[in-house]
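Possible regression after last week's pipeline update?

I re-ran a chain I had predicted before the update to compare outputs. Posting the input and the new output here so someone can diff against the archived version. Not blocking, just want to make sure nothing changed silently.
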Amino acid sequence: MAAPNRGRRPAGAQSRPGRALVLILIAMVALTGGMFWAGQLKPRLGIDLAGGTTITLKAKNQPGQENAVNETNMNTAVGIIERRVNGLGVSEAEVQTQGNDNIIVNIPKGTNSQQAREQVGTTAQLFFRPVLTVAPGGPTSPKPSPSPSASDKAKDKAKDGKQTANPPSGTPSPTATTQGRAVTDALKAPTPTPTASGSGKPKPSGTPKPIPPVDAAATEKLQKAFLALDCTNKKARVAAGENVKPSQPTVGCGQNSDGQWEKYVLGPAEVDGKDVDDAKGQLDQQRGMWIVTMDFTSSGAKKFQKITSRLSQQQPPMNQFAIVLDGEVVSAPSVRTALSANAEISGNFTQESAQDLGNILSYGALPLSFEEQSVTTVTAALGGEQLKAGLIAGAIGLALVIIYLVAYYRGLALIAILSLMVSAILTYTIMALLGPAIGFALNLPAVCGAIVAIGITADSFIVYFERIRDEIREGRTLRPAVERAWPRARRTILVSDFVSFLAAAVLFIVTVGKVQGFAFTLGLTTLLDVVVVFLFTKPVMTLLARKRFFANGHPWSGLDPKRLGAKPPLRRSRRASAPTDPKEA
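New output (post-update):
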């Protein structure tokens, strides 16, 4: 007689269900405790359920770049906008292209959503320009005198660039004449060669090139723009910095430390935002004000050293450099010594505005300019109606599954319902914790994925129940049937769930936007189905098989041998083949 193989458990051997049930109970308690500890008692909702804002941006070509609106620049802009919004802590912000020149930005309703809306279309073109002249921000009248003859003379002299230091007799204010002469002189005057301290000798090397000369027509145009500029008018401020190449002089507006508007004539840009390596808003403890600090790249540090080295030798206001962001002068500090490694932007910053500017500069400038085409807001009421409709659909689907299980499997439906409850608890707690952890937000497609998962989970129960019934039909009692049915059912469940998870993973990778919510939820619930079936459904089935109601095949247990058409016990069928006639023996 051969010795039994003790290294392998027989197919009908009894398992230890208590360990698996304790393990899943610990997991449920831990997830629920983590949900309370994180203070996130319900999943975050997406735009279509909680409400939010959808912004449509249309791309425009930059000056001198007629073919800038292309696929590469659009994808770059999408990445920058997405990083900006997510950098503010906004959950489930969606940024994607639509067509050839549109970008759609979905911002959920909640903390910082309005702040993010203000940043999405900000181009963040940063330039460091030398200041040529500065004046109060209001418009300057080109008529310096009530006397016609004096006025005509003043105009002619201004056009020729020969304005004298003393205005004509009877001029009530020297503002127009001095400002006009300042623009002309600043653009025509050569840049002094920096000298070493205490000597009249020029510095030997590394001297930056002077500002390139500007032709008379451009000078006159810039002068007129400067005199007419009214920085107290928002439209005028925006228009002043539009369609200007970095290599051209321009005019701009900015606020001084007293909050008063000033207007500037600015030279060509010598350092730009691409030379900034990092930027952040922080509180200057000594001055008690919020500033934005910037660290330059190696090439940017060299450029910045050159411009500050030159400006430190100038007289006010030509010793200032303007930090120009999207055409507006945000700061115009004076330079007393050459700088290289870093710089700071100071002004009338609040904590929020300083951190916003640091966030924008850190993630870089957009390669394109954008204009806001439309803004659509989904109210919380509409989102609540959609959520209610989704929950009703889920309840109807769950009710139909339960009715089918009760009608066909009777007592076994209790195991299926308990398993669905465990799966629901695990899914809910994990979704709630994924909100603060990775920014997951439940949207309507995700709800659809959860509804589909009800059928996938129920399918696993059905596979196992049918395998048990097959064993009972073969004449086995319930307890051996439960154990022998499990290996075959387990393989089928794993293969089925692997296919579902693979489909969800592919869908998540190849799609964008809200469809990813459906794929993510489907994949998550598929994994949880495996956990629930292995750690709950099978152990509970093992325990209930020891109860009389199920073991004796009660008609309402769903395992009645007569209803299943079971064969006689296997050992009886073997005895039936033995001869019964004594003569035959």
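Follow-up from reviewer: compared with the archived run. Residues 143-151, 153-174, 190-211, 570-578 have pLDDT under 50 and may be disordered. Marking as no regression found.
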